[in-house]
Amino acid sequence: MNNSKNLGNTGNFFRSQEIADNRYVAVFHDDDAIHPEYIDRAMKIMRNDKDLVMISGGEVAMYTVSANDWYPLPNSYLEYPANNNAFLSLMLRRSTFCNAIYRTDIYVQAEYRPDKYGKIHDICFLQDIGASGKVALMDGGCVRWRQHASSDSNSLKTGPFPDEILNIICHVNNTFNKENIITNIRGGD
Question: What's the whole-model pTM score?
Answer without folding.
Answer: 0.89
